[in-house]
């Protein structure tokens, strides 16, 4: 017996919605900008990595990093670079495997003690099945204790993350990526087509 039409229609809607390009939004520190269409363009989702319009003071004691993610599973990389040398990004903290959809917050991420008093940029890269996404923030590392953590910095139910254990060197350096990242959708479109065919066959 075929499932009820309304139930099938709703299932089809949800399935296709979940296949759409997922994204993440940097909430803290304030992002240089967010463009849903161009977030896959490195190094900062189509925004200039040299923009200093909104600079966040980041104590060496720590500052919160809060983001909203719509990927159910992704890898997060946290980089930083001096503002006068943005092509030389280094680890801020180790990479993380993130799971779950919603708010994700690291309440106290230490600043770079050796960069106190200097302008810098923080770049967060989210790698998922559909490609890489980029968000950046202009910062200035300062002396002092950890910044206060706002109530908005929280983890949604089911959202969690674990550090990726590496056997390599504790810190790596890389050049900032440029241009649009390739985001493959072929497999997901194939699943959608298969679902549609099943949907019509079940009627």
Give the key terms.
203 residues; Coagulation Factor XIII, Chain A, domain 1; 2 domains; 7-stranded mixed beta sheet; 3-stranded antiparallel beta sheet; 2 helices; 12 strands; globular
Summarize the topology.
Elements: H1 5-19, E1 24-28, E2 41-42, E3 55-59, E4 63-69, E5 73-82, E6 89-99, E7 102-109, E8 119-128, E9 131-142, E10 160-163, E11 173-174, E12 179-180, H2 186-202
Parallel strand pairs: 3-9
Antiparallel strand pairs: 1-4, 2-12, 4-7, 5-6, 5-8, 6-10, 6-11, 8-9
How many helices in DSSP terms? 2
State mean pLDDT (0 to 100 scale). Answer: 80
State the oligomer.
single chain
Please report which band the strand proportion falls in: under 5%, 5-15%, 15-25%, 25-35%, 35-45% or over 45%. 35-45%
How many strands, what sense, and barrel or not for the largest sheet? 7 strands, mixed
Q: In which range does the helix fraction lie?
A: 10-25%
Q: First CA to last CA: what distance?
A: 9 Å
SSE order, one letter for each helix or strand: HEEEEEEEEEEEEH
CATH architecture designation of the largest domain: Distorted Sandwich
CATH class of the largest domain, named Mainly Beta
Which secondary-structure class do the elements indicate? alpha+beta
**CATH-defined topology of the largest domain:** Coagulation Factor XIII, Chain A, domain 1
Query: What is the tally of beta strands?
Result: 12
Could you name the ranges where pLDDT drops below 50 across 5 or more consecutive residues? 7-19, 167-173, 180-200
């Amino acid at each position: 017996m075929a499932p009820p039409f309304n139930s099938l229609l709703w299932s089809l809607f949800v399935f296709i919605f979940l296949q759409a390009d997922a994204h993440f939004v940097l909430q803290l520190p304030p992002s240089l900008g967010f463009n849903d269409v161009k977030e896959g363009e490195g190094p900062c989702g189509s925004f200039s990595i040299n923009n200093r319009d909104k600079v966040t003071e980041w104590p060496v004691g720590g500052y919160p990093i809060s983001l909203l993610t719509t990927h159910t599973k992704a890898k997060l990389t946290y980089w930083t670079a001096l503002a006068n040398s943005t092509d030389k990004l280094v680890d801020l903290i180790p990479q993380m495997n993130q799971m779950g959809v919603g708010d994700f917050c690291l309440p106290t991420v230490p600043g770079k003690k050796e960069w106190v008093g200097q302008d810098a940029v923080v770049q967060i890269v989210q790698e998922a099945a559909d490609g890489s996404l980029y968000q950046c923030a202009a910062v200035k590392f300062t002396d002092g204790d950890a910044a206060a953590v706002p109530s908005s910095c929280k983890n949604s139910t089911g959202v969690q993350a674990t550090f990726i254990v590496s056997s390599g060197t504790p810190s790596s350096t890389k050049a900032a990526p440029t241009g649009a990242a390739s985001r493959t959708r072929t497999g997901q479109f194939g699943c959608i087509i298969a679902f549609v065919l099943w949907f019509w066959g079940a009627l």
